[in-house]
Design a protein that fits this description.
Oligomer: single chain
Strand content: 25-35%
Order of helices and strands: HEEEEHEEEHEHEEEHEEEEHHHH
Number of strands: 15
Largest sheet: 11 strands, mixed
Amino acid sequence: MGKLLKYIAEETQGTCFTSFKYCYDTITTPAIEYGEAEMGYINLKEYAEDVHDPMPRNMRQRAKICLQGAPLFKFFLDGSRRVYKVDDIQYDKKVFPIVSGQISVACCGREMHENNAFKSFQHVYEESYPVLCLPVTANGEGMDNDVFFRNLCNKLNERLQRVNAEVQLKRILYYLTKLNENETFENKGIAKIQDEMIECEKRIVSYLVSKNLLNQDSYLIKDGSIQYKPMKTGNFKDLAHIRNNYRHVIGVSKKFNPNIMKDNKDQSSAGQIARLPLYHRTPAFLWQPGEQWGNVNFAIWYVRIRDIGKTESPYAGILKVEKMLMTGKETEYGLSSDEVDTITANLINERNPVCYGTDARWANHLYPVYMTECYCKSRFKSDYYFLNLF
């Protein structure tokens, strides 16, 4: 048993078992993939733009026009995490997994010359750090959970300093031990680490806004959905309170479930999305997830950026695009169709160069987002090094 695990057992009056250590991301285990899950059908009965045309709109000419000026998107945000099973620990005759993770969230940006020629692409801000996740029963002292696990984190970091480790734990998270149907303790631990990564993404968006880096001429592409579920803890737990941070942020998803979308005739939109011609977009539709999502509303639309004849599936080469609606007026009347066209045309212009042969998702990649993702993953310590910390 590693000295760090032994110390955790001593401090929390538990018993470790020297279980096999492994990375959930590299070994096939019966674990849920946590992400921005889409649950149930979404009825898209209302438009989220002022032109109510059900037909796909051709963005080819608009994209050519946008190429003549400065690109709309200057910043690109991506988050990644690697999650590990590091041991099992026993409390009150029940055994729980100890889960750990490496989190890396980064924003990269492009700098342009005065003549709109490309100058450089570099990282702007990042947070990369390890976390540990224990069952809440590790706190057997009756102390406030946040205080207890913060103190434990400080003690573990002191021990890491003594052995000259190159890493320090950012925080110790905890998961509740009451299981609902189809839940496992491992999945609860993974979910807490995923939530921590999402919180980090929100924190970096807030930082960019505080530095006045985002405006109508300088947008941010966030890789993945911006339909953040409400959280019970954290500085950014209520999406409605941080909505203004996302005024100039677009969420772009490479993967999505087309079967959950219904049009205004209650028909599945999957076929319409699959048949999108090259450089065409669907109308922008209104999605109102309701009070459980903080009463924040979204405009959602799809665009094809690759020729269907050169991709491996009907949905390869299609992106799902999301934008938060800022005001009641936008919810009622929608975005300007001209704004939606401008955003879409600029997204099309971000598709090249591609990463042929290096990523199976090449058809759905926007290249600056791909580069940001590569930068994120480059910040991870090796699995061998990380697991041997424990």
